[in-house]
Fold each of these.
Amino acid sequence: MKKYLFKIAFFFAFVAIIDVACGFAFRYLTAKAKYGETYNNNYIANVCVDDVIILGSSHADRHYVPSVIQDSLGLSCYNCGEPGCGIIPAYARYKMITERKKPQLVIYEATPGYDYFIADDYSKYLGRIRQYSDREPVADMYETFGDELEPLRLLSNMYRNNSNIVQNLMDIVVPTKDYRGYGPLFGKLTEEAIIYNRKTQLEKDIKSQKIDSLKLSYVEKLFADVKADGVCIVCTLSPYFMTRTNDKDDIKYLPVIELCRKYNIPFIDNRNYEGITGEMEYFQDFDHLNDNGAKKYTSSLIPTLRKYLEPNSNYLTRE
Amino acid sequence: MLFNSLKFLLIFPMIFGIHWAIPAKYNQWRKLFLIFASYLLYIYFKPAYALVLLGVTLVTFYGGLFIEHEGTARKKHLIWLLTVLALLPLLVFKYYNFLNNSVSEGLGAIGLMFTLPGLNWAVPVGISFFTFQAVGYLLDVFHERIKAEKDIIDYLLFVSFFPQIASGPISKADELLPQIKRERSFDYNQAVSGLKYLLWGMFLKVVIADRAGIYVDTVFGSFEKFSGLGCMLASVLYSVQIYADFAGYSLMAVGIGKTLGFSLIDNFNRPYFAATVTEFWKRWHISLTRWLTQHVYLPLGGSRCSKTHNYWNILVTFLVSGIWHGANWTFIIWGVLHGICQIIEKAFGWNKKNYKGAGRLTRIILTFIIVTLAWTIFRSPSIADALAYFIRFGSTSGELVAQGSGSTLTYTIIGIIPLIVFELLCEYFPYAYNWLCKKQWLRWCAYLMVFTMMMLTGVFDGSSFIYVSF
């Protein structure tokens, strides 16, 4: 038995050495990444000092073009949105950025499914920021949303960088264009996709969803912190292909509308945006604008953003 | 509690330590401790489930004692009654809603509206496995293959032994009970082998099965978006997923058993190298095949009867196998399909042919295709969905690979490579495998590589095992 236990201990000693080596290797690989997701995440966590930041999930990532905002407002901009992201990484990212510098404007694209509806579990959201779990804002999120054994798992560098290696290496060797965090989609919506999506959209719409009060409390925390930081924030809903007029769709947004009212934050509802909604040439799929659509939408949003950036603007409108 | 959870991996060393800390001469205490640990881990799923487990255990234990002393005629009646009684929780939990819905739909088709209230209960974890193990014991006593167990402590452990309770393997009483009774002393080689099984099983589960599962779920969830090739790729990956998932669990179960001094049956023997469907069933879920052969196929007459009767026996056996897997027509059709394939193989004598070289390779590919098509039905929520999925095979429009799934596929392929290498070595180059195993440094490199790959590319969302729901 002694020999057995000794060999197990020996094995885990080796594992510990590999783990430490992996920690160094991943830090090196992350710092070396010049493109893609790894670069974006590292930029948001360690570099970003931009004037305008965009937070949210795929709608934020695909619909807001930083170059358009930069050119029009004369403010530097970075898109911190990520598909399937939601409030958990969004809040942590905001806190990591404000450790360095407070932005002038936060555009927060609300997505009820990720931001405050009950989903499978929190691990997929926490996974997006796991690499930075040694940073205080991320550690706080883990304390709130992680399970009781998560701190033990996070001791491992290999676990913290789990499922990152392929992306890390790709982001070093495969050059991609730097869109400042924006993830453009190319291609147009096809008739076939419309027929398919109409069917699935109906199925999606009839799903009843319940509110996750813990996640919702972090939406509130984000609003409260942004306000306390003296940063201008707008909460937005960007266009969908299909016109959304039914009450069921509206109900989904009531919690965030309530919070916007509470914190005197403009709620800009552009789900049905004239000139974009229903136009196949501006959409890549039913829910997401393509690059042309995103540029058109971002440009059309500029006057509104400019209005809210004006000093002493006092607002509470649902546009 | 499932083996792939960190909680289990933290608790297991304690179980291991306490178990071996109890001296062998106090074997009764060891058994009591293992029963306590088994029930505790089972209660973790849902406390009420333990009552079902206990109920099935007590019915079969006292049933065994009762029928042993009965005369032949009375015994025959009693065995039916006791078997139905032992199977009752399984029938109620697993099949009540299915039967209720099927009868209602059937009556509805002829204009009669009649429906019983549905049961909104979750199926107790591993109910099919422990019920079949307990019923197997009862039938063995009935057929006088074994003597009825007199010690309830031993029998409680036999049915509830935690490594195998959630997903098997389904042990036979004459294999496991003697091991429970024996005073086991720590065997270094067996314990080391157990850890190897545990490590490899965990690798199969978290690196391959769970990663492939992400992709498979994406495609099966919205297959209309994918081209025929895209759907076929997902079907192949489901074959990989279900194997890695179930074999992964079985290896972990066998491994944990070994570290505690027990030898459980190996449930898999590289099934995708089978050259016929008949051979596939000798390599896949071996403990279930053995159970069905002994308790369904042979009592029906096996192969010692006319050809037609034999074919019927095969079909019934695989129908039972399908039903055992779950209350859905997809499982039933899946079982029947496997039965039909074996009947065809038997009728043409393909199952007896010794395929070699290119012929064997062709047969292996053909068998894999058949098995994969059957798994597609098995994976589909309904027969209509399975048909729609198959129709999609002919489509050239749509995505080949799910958007944004590049890294998922890459990790899956990275995981599959060691599996293929390992299985090829074991299957076709056993001498080379044994030679490599003798190199200690190489073994250690392999263990460390497997562990590192697991940590770097595994999916740690604590997802359940596919067969746990059966």
Note: The interface with chain A takes residues 6-7, 10, 20, 186, 188, 191-192, 195, 222, 224-225, 397, 404, 407, 410-411, 414, 444, 447-448, 451-452, 455-461 of chain B (CB under 8 Å).
Amino acid sequence: MIVKTQDLTRIYQLGTSIISAVNRVNLEIRDASFVTILGPSGSGKTTLLNLIGLIDQPTSGKVYFRNQDVSLLTDKERRNIRLHSMGFVFQTFNLLPTLTTVENVELPLALAKISGQLQHKRAIELLTAVDLSHRLHHRPRELSMGEMQRVAIARALANDPCLILADEPTGELDTETGSEIIKLLVDLCQGKKTTVLLTTHDKKVAEVADERYYIQDGKLEYESS
Amino acid sequence: MFFREEIVVVAEGSWVVQAFPVIGENLPISTLEKVNQVEGVKTVVPMVVRFGYQVEAVIQLVPTNVSIGIPFGNLSVLIGQTPLKPGGTWPVVAQEEVVVGPSLALEWNFDAGSKIKVSSKHAYMNLTVSGILDTRSALLSRSIILPLRLAQQLSYGHTMFVNMIIAEPEYIDQQELIANRIEQEIPGLKALSINERNQIVEPLLSDIETWNLGLSSVLYLLSMILVIMVSTMNISERRRDFATLDAIGAPKSTIFRIVMIETALIGLLGGVLGVLLGSIAAVLIASIYTSIPLSLFFADLLAFISPFFLTKIITSTVVISSIAGILSAITALRINLPETLRAEY
């Protein structure tokens, strides 16, 4: 089991109202599986992903990453897990605008203190794998939405993580480009046996998963295939 | 500073700035012999110095030119070892020749051999420029140095007066003593040693220094606030980038370092640009108020603004922006990660 949550809850207080963005979620994700969480906007998908990705702290409940209770980890250890064991794909790509395509992919490798030559070699390999070898020195603003998301996928895979967390990766893309991105993600992650946890509000996207969940008002339900 | 080892003798009530009487009475030529008779005085050199001011579009705070009359045999008392620019020769008095400063020469297009006309209410003269001084001294640069006799004719219409006497003491360490003796023995004279001349300008320099310190402290404080504001705004605009770095696991120290390097570079760039623009502005203002052509200032810019001063300014701007960068770096580290990643930009 790569990820396990136990009664995971995240409550926000907005003025006088209390919102349970994630409500007592129990989830188990097997190694090398492709898991999707389907849900409408505001259902708690991103909050759940942030909790599992160690970006946010739960109000109550536990997250176990590789059987380790992450609430016991220091900030440095959490960052270390995010850097070496997780890859993030955001809905709005979150590429650094001042860096070129290849530099964006080199970034996590540089943070992991991989040598300059290896960084470059690995970044080019990944960008070739996402079919962007002809766009190495372009800046994000010179790329299409689909190309930006491909760069984001290459960046997420840079440190060879065991878990990819993709938060609505097709949310900004048209249907055709969205399908290409999902296919790319499936192909790359299946080949490397990388676990993927993907959130979406698109049923078609959710269908590619080995396991599907549905979230509504912070409550998670398993959906049989 | 002129006449470090000599005593400057002027009429009582004269206003001496550094070494020259700007305002004051004249001295009868017979004073020269009286000063020479004072015990401990080795040599005396009579001089006539006139500052020319001009009131046109810009009121000149400093003289636009200086006429200095001195016996050419004693020229070294005034100009020391200053050479002439190539092509020039030292004047021959009988031929009514003069030497001029490089700034005046450039302004009026004088060369060795140029004919110039000099006039006053007392006299009109056709003179020949025998040479151009090769000097960086602001005063000599704007000077026309004439034989004493001609300067007296121009100033007074006769040779009965001078307006300053340079007295060289037999021993340098007796400068004060002999200056006092001159004042005691010859009524109506003011004899100023180097220390006395410094004391005249010291309060002024001290005031300038105090104002300078106060102004620069305020400016440093303002620039620090400005750098903090600019840097914090910059971070606020790029908070998603910092949130992304944070999300993908960048260590806090790395984020801190990025912000610090950025602000230090901003400081470096600001320092270099500030020094460049400040120097240009200073030179422009100085040129307007001294009439020294810009080309002369720019040719020797580093002689006016020392590399040490430049280094000090640039280093201090880097230090200030680095201190300001600490606050900005803390702002970058305090970004609410889930909220920033969720926000739409």
Note: The two ends of chain A are 20 Å apart (CA to CA).
Amino acid sequence: MDKILYLPSDEYIKVDGDTGYIGISEYAAKQLGAVTYVDMPEEGDTFEAGEEFGAIESRKAASELNSPVSCEVLEVNSELEDDPKLINNDPLGAWIIKVRIQNPEELDKLMDSEAYADYCAKRH
Amino acid sequence: MDIKQTCLHGHHTALNAKMSPFAGYDMPIEYSGLDDEHAAVRTKCGVFDVSHMGEVDIKGPEALRFVNHIFTNDAAVLADGQAAYGMMTAFDGGTVDDLLVYRRSENDFMLVINAANIDKDLDWIRSHSGAYDVTVIDRCADFGQLAVQGPESEKIMKDVLEIDCSDLSFYTFKTLPDLTIVSRTGYTGEDGFEIYAAPGKIVDLWEKLIAAGVKPCGLGCRDTLRFEAGLPLYGDELADDITPLEAGLGMFVKLDKPEGFIGCEALKKQKAEGLRRKLVGLEIEGSATARHGYEVIDMDGGTVGYITTGYNSLTLGKNIAFALVEAAYGTLGTKLQVKIRRKLLPATVIKKRFYTPQYKK
């Protein structure tokens, strides 16, 4: 199984070698409610760890999306353009961008699933 | 300052509502979900706790004259048991608040004001009441308020609450023997009722409605519903520096009232000179939502205004917004752009009543 790591701002990265799939956590998807739009970058864009790469919107609010690691965008999930609610149905399946991870050491600074679950539990 | 709670706070948390601070109160934003609640009000019925709203009584021999002095609409044309929507404006024509005025008799009125403006409004009202033989009474703590909204509201009121409202036409009200006030008013663009009563009574009515399966609705869909119906929200479309005329609410401003009202002269002047900016509807291409404060830009790249409210409309399936723009850009069909984060999205000026209200006249 792929390793899934999280930022405190609720983005995840599923790691498969030097490829990563970045999306938002189930917790964040639930908080946001029905997703109406995902503002995505272009293929080839590069981001630093923690840098804003896009935004996700529900009727209530727009939230910025931050990159968990320094990366180059290999692909954006174009299915989300037509059907952004895929993120509500399956947040871990509906990744937003596929990236090349440029600096694997940065992964060590992220929370694993267990630490993230604890973190979410304390936010009520 | 501590955050305040309405009389139904415990009921909201028991229903697992998403809560958020609004106008100093910890208020329910949504329960089952904004879209679901929005649809319930458009197609069936929903109930809102709006106990945060403020109530002020104006009583005394000169109550009518005083209300008309601070109110843009004309309270003199109201019959007893009738209500009117309008604004209080400052001397410069800027909007102090928008409100409902209920006329019990010419000596007895109730004003219903926005929660966020209660202190400001009370100061304003009291500071102008000195020359009139009236008493200004803060009733905020005496009343909770529910809004029962949607096409099935009349039936729900009768079947569940045993309140027959068939005798109430739009913008009329009655006081029940237990002093509960029921008006055929609302903020959703649907038929519906607002109920003012002592907090204990409001809790009792809420419990009956929820037990009967009426959908609890939060402030999230209250905003999307009022927006679709073209209704303003103070803080977005109205503010101290926005006049009712700029907001397109001229039909609620009676510039020809015999004794005028505070702000009347400034508004007459603004009307005579022509409005410099006006509130318009925008239809935006794409799905990114234009939110309050986003810039509106003309085709040459100049900023000509800003978004006041925007949503991907649930009922209409369109991406729409209200914007306050320079008057020259306010004509229907004008092409503009909205800056959403780093992108410029094409937009067209359309009528700002996006959804035709389904009021029972």
Note: The first helix of chain A runs from residue 26 to 32.
